[in-house]
Design goal:
Blueprint (H helix, E strand, L loop, with lengths): L13 E6 L10 H15 L4 E3 L3 E9 L1 H6 L10 H8 L12 E10 L7 E8 L4 E3 L3 E6 L3 E6 L4 H23 L4 H4 L9 E2 L8 E3 H10 L1
Parallel strand pairs: 3-4, 7-10
Antiparallel strand pairs: 1-5, 2-6, 3-5, 7-8, 8-9
Length: 218
């Protein structure tokens, strides 16, 4: 099932993978949460891509009915979501940031006599909204808005991408200043969504101006 985490995401817009262990709660001790995150990270870091658009997340928690009904230690389903979202996001995850998650459905199902709990994670996305991890960086424009770039492509190609980004951002700003509405003005922007700088923890971020200056010097 975890073969969905390959070099590229499936073209049909759905990733499914298993986490063969019990979840942790938002209230769990930090050591337990770290152990869980390390385990999940060892699975998702193998993906060669990051989904970059809005996604829908489905979490199926397979656990025995007996444990759910007869133990006070069984977590509430709403409390297992955030620790999982944290490890699915970032450079070693499958999402750039968890603000891409448009909706979450989290539920448990009975696994009868199987003592081993597990999570089945399904992520639905637009099939072409993803970024290769290899060489991925982000460029900051206007101080906070960031767009992807790949440091391992030729400098002249980086410059072409940056100039296209800047052209779209400048046009959007001029349109807004002239009274054109946001949803009309943003049509000049790249199809790739922007990310706020504050949501890119762990990623390399460079000012677009500095990158252009660096390219021009080389």
């Amino acid at each position: 099932m975890n073969d969905h985490l390959g070099k590229e995401p499936p073209e049909y817009g759905e990733i499914v993978f298993e986490v063969n262990r019990s979840p942790v709660s938002l209230q769990s001790k930090s050591e337990k949460k770290k152990e869980f995150k390390d385990f999940v990270s060892s699975i998702v870091k193998e993906a060669g891509f990051l989904l970059s658009g809005d996604v829908k997340l489905f979490i199926e928690w397979r656990i025995t009915e007996q444990h759910r009904y007869e133990h006070a230690s069984a977590y509430d389903v709403d409390n297992i979501i955030k620790p999982l979202l944290d490890v699915l996001s970032g450079p070693n995850g499958v999402l750039v940031d968890d603000n891409q998650v448009q909706s979450v459905e989290c539920y448990w199902t009975d696994i009868f006599h199987d003592p081993d709990e597990k999570l089945i994670i399904t992520i639905k996305y637009v099939h072409d909204e993803w970024l290769p991890k290899d060489g991925l960086e982000f460029l900051s424009f206007e101080g906070s808005l960031c767009l992807p770039i790949w440091g391992n492509i030729k400098p002249e190609h980086q410059k072409m991408i940056i100039e296209r980004y800047e052209s779209g951002i400048n046009f959007k700003n001029k349109a807004l200043e002239s009274g054109i509405g946001y949803y009309q003005a943003k049509l000049a922007m790249p199809i790739q969504r922007v990310f706020h700088k504050g949501r890119l923890t762990g990623f390399k971020i460079t000012s677009a101006t500095d990158r252009i200056a660096q390219i021009n010097k080389s």
